Amino acid sequence: AQSVAQPEDQVNVAEGNPLTVKCTYSVSGNPYLFWYVQYPNRGLQFLLKYITGDNLVKGSYGFEAEFNKSQTSFHLKKPSALVSDSALYFCAVRGPYILTGGGNKLTFGTGTQLKVEL
Amino acid sequence: DAGVTQSPTHLIKTRGQQVTLRCSPKSGHDTVSWYQQALGQGPQFIFQYYEEEERQRGNFPDRFSGHQFPNYSSELNVNALLLGDSALYLCASSLGSGGPLGEQYFGPGTRLTVT
Predict the structure, then answer these.
(1) Is some CB atom of chain A closer than 8 A to the CB atom of B108?
(2) Right CATH for A3-117 from 2.60.40.10, 3.30.470.20, 1.25.40.10, 1.20.950.20
(3) I need a surface site. Which of A12, A102, B37, B109 has the fewest CB within 10 A?
(4) pLDDT digit string, tens, across residues B19-47
């Protein structure tokens, strides 16, 4: 079974400072990893994904994530936080196609509330 | 380019009733997945439809059923509603059911309240 852990319910950071939102995963085989953001009363917006290749993945709105296979982690980062980045962030994992029986079910973490203050 | 759309936006039902939620996928997408997001939780996978068939199913009872139409749109049906079914129901669409192209795009969701 695949699973995702987001150990922090909330992360607080000052505007202009770097931010990190942590994510660890468990899955059989090579993972497909995703970050989504959710604003109040909205659906999920895709930020970035790791499929294969470079361990540092760049995504939307200046976000990036670092894949670390040995630590089974996929932490979300941004060099300089903005107040408008305040939202709920979800990490998700999908197993490799051959093991999912032909589906692309995502398993999500419980989410991390990011609060960026002036 | 139309994104994923869902209807209705909000819905209030009574315990024991039945509800149908609708989803139209992003233009060009052929696969629809449904997720339930309870308050304060991450989305939980309900099931996925591809080529009008249920391809994967999460840990949800048979009260939850679905359908995909030839135009790729989809419905989620929930029978015998329970208070615990109150949640945001998210529809996600993708191109193909697997592989890197299977990146999912989410709709705004339907907020279901069961009283």
Answers:
(1) yes
(2) 2.60.40.10
(3) A12
(4) 999 999 999 899 999 999 999 899 999 99
